[in-house]
Structure formats: C-alpha cells, structure tokens
Automatic annotation (TrEMBL):
Keyword S-adenosyl-L-methionine in record: no
Protein name per the record: CBS domain-containing protein
Spans through the membrane: none
Species this chain originates from: Lacimonas salitolerans
Alphabetical UniProt keywords: CBS domain
PROSITE patterns from the UniProt entry: CBS (PS51371)
Keyword Cell membrane set for record: no
Domain CBS: start-end pairs: 24-81, 90-146
Source species, domain of life: Bacteria
SUPFAM superfamilies per UniProt: CBS-domain pair
Length: 216
C-alpha cells in the first residue's frame, strides 16, 4: 500500500470509536424482538433518544424502531400498538457502520439518508453503540474548530516554512520535502481548497501506523 497525503489527513480524523468511548451508556439502549413497543417508548422517553436498536442474543442488529415509526403506527391503528412486539413494527433492513468509520463520513451518510440514529458495530458484526446525528455533528464541529485553530497558528508561525501539495502526493515525496531545510508543515490542497495540513510529527506517526499494520 502506498501512503498518500490524503491517507495521512484521513488518519487524523476522529473515529466513531472515539465518540463511543466518551458515552459508555450507548450500548444499553437495545431491545429484543419479543420486547413490546411500550418497552421501546419507555427507553426513548427516559433516555431522550430518537429510536431503539433491536438485537438478537448474539447482539447482531436485526432491526431498528424509531419514535416516528411508533407514532405513525399509533396514528393508523390506535394505542393497542403499544402492546405489540417490536418485531411487528420495526424496520428490518438496517444500515450500520463500523466503529472505525470516521465522523465526517458518518455525518455525510446520516444527512444523505436522513437518519437520526445509526447503529455502530464491531468487526464481528455485534452492536457496540447507536449514535445520534447530534452527537456526530458535535464531534465534527469540534474537529473543525481544533483543526482550524492549529492551521491558523501554524500559518502565523511558519510563514515560508510550509509547502503546498495535492492529495495524491506519495509519502516518499512528502518525506523528501520534510528533509528540505526549514520545511515544518505540508499543506494539502485540491482545486483551491485546503483539505488539511501535515506536520513532521504527524507524518512520522502515520508511517508508524502503516508499518504496524503491515507487521500485524
């Protein structure tokens, strides 16, 4: 695998794994197929959530029940819906993401598909959390704020000690740039838009990550 400037920038982005570690209560908001819609409403109300994930005994996702699903069924059928098993009203085809997915990709998917809740699974396909769009939005805003602050600080300090490259420039080229006297930062730009920046330390950490992955 050839490491590029784009790969290094992407490696700096926060992952859902980081967001989940902050909120340890997330995996608790689940039900099984034989739970009732009333049970789902209790979780939604008590935990102020937009929906509940339905899992099997192995914690694999088998459905999701949103607040909108419940309201729509009550409107069409009546309050008896609250006594139904969630299996009757849940959405069975569920879009999930891996816990290593970055927050930017997740936010884009949630906006494009109009999801308010998104189950997050580990490599074994087991549910580890259900994130809400506000959580992912906050994480992305925090990333942008911190990234912009660092970039402005670097530009103010470095002046002529940075070089601009495209996203597909390989690591060998970037390494050669850092070996040039005075170069402390590589700015990654495409079509006039700044995608991010890479410092010497970040470049070395990215190389170590790739080397470690190959070794394993």
């Amino acid at each position: 695998m050839t490491l590029t400037a784009h790969d290094i920038i992407e490696g700096k982005r926060p992952r859902l794994r980081d967001l989940i570690e902050v909120d340890l209560s997330l995996p608790q908001a689940t039900l099984t197929k034989d739970s009732t819609v009333r049970d789902a409403m209790r979780i939604i109300s008590n935990e102020n959530r937009g929906g509940v994930v339905v899992v099997d005994d192995a914690r694999a996702v088998v459905g999701i029940l949103s607040e909108r699903d419940i309201v729509r069924n009550i409107f069409s059928t009546g309050a008896d819906v609250l006594n139904w098993m969630v299996d009757r009203v849940m959405t069975r085809v569920v879009y999930t993401v891996d816990e290593d997915t970055n927050c930017q990709t997740t936010l884009t998917e949630m906006i494009d598909k109009r999801f308010r809740n998104l189950p997050v699974c580990n490599a074994d396909g087991k549910l580890v959390a259900c994130v809400e769009i506000l959580q992912v939005t906050h994480a992305k805003l925090a990333e942008l704020t911190e990234s912009n602050r660092k970039l402005m600080d670097l530009l103010a300090l470095l002046k002529n000690t940075q070089i601009t490259v495209g996203p597909n420039v390989c690591s060998a080229t970037i390494k050669a740039m850092f070996q040039t006297d005075g170069v402390e930062c590589v700015i990654v730009r495409e079509n006039g838009k700044t995608l991010g920046f890479i410092t010497k330390d970040e470049f070395l950490r990215a190389l170590q990550r790739v080397s470690g992955a190959h070794a394993s």
